[in-house]
């Protein structure tokens, strides 16, 4: 399902050039947070992905996995954040939530872990990163 339309800076190929790219965020789920991106770091992983040096990039790609933003909307079951809160997102935006790794706060070892960009959520939607005007992520 499609949610809000946003604009990001995307690589369209391995040239390293980023250009404006409009796309739809996934629809906000009951435990999701929608936030306006305020800041996003740039590191070498972004450059590797943009240039397809890891040989796994799907284009168009909106990179950025060191993200800070301000919450503008929360799902009905969100308890950790409210509108106006400042949030941060790293390199993981999803996991199964059911395995032993997830239940012991080690989501980075979950076999169904979802990276912030260049990955696919459980609902089939593609993840895009913080070189964007907004993002939707699970409250965890």
Question: The CATH topology is what?
Answer: Quinone Oxidoreductase, Chain A, domain 1
How many strand segments?
8
Could you say what the CATH architecture is? Alpha-Beta Complex
Unreliable stretches: none
Order of strands, main sheet, comes to 5-4-3-8
Provide the CATH top-level class.
Alpha Beta
Based on CA inertia axes, which overall geometry fits? Answer: globular
CATH superfamily: Medium-chain alcohol dehydrogenases, catalytic domain
Distance between the termini: 21 Å
Secondary-structure class = mainly beta
| Number of structural units classed as domains | 1
Q: Radius of gyration from the CA trace?
A: 14 Å
Mean pLDDT metric: 95
Query: What string, H for helix and E for strand, traces the elements in order?
Result: EEEHEEEHEE
Query: Helix content range of the residues, please?
Result: under 10%
Count the helices. How many?
Answer: 2
Strand content: 35-45%
Question: Mind summarizing the main beta sheet?
Answer: 4 strands, antiparallel
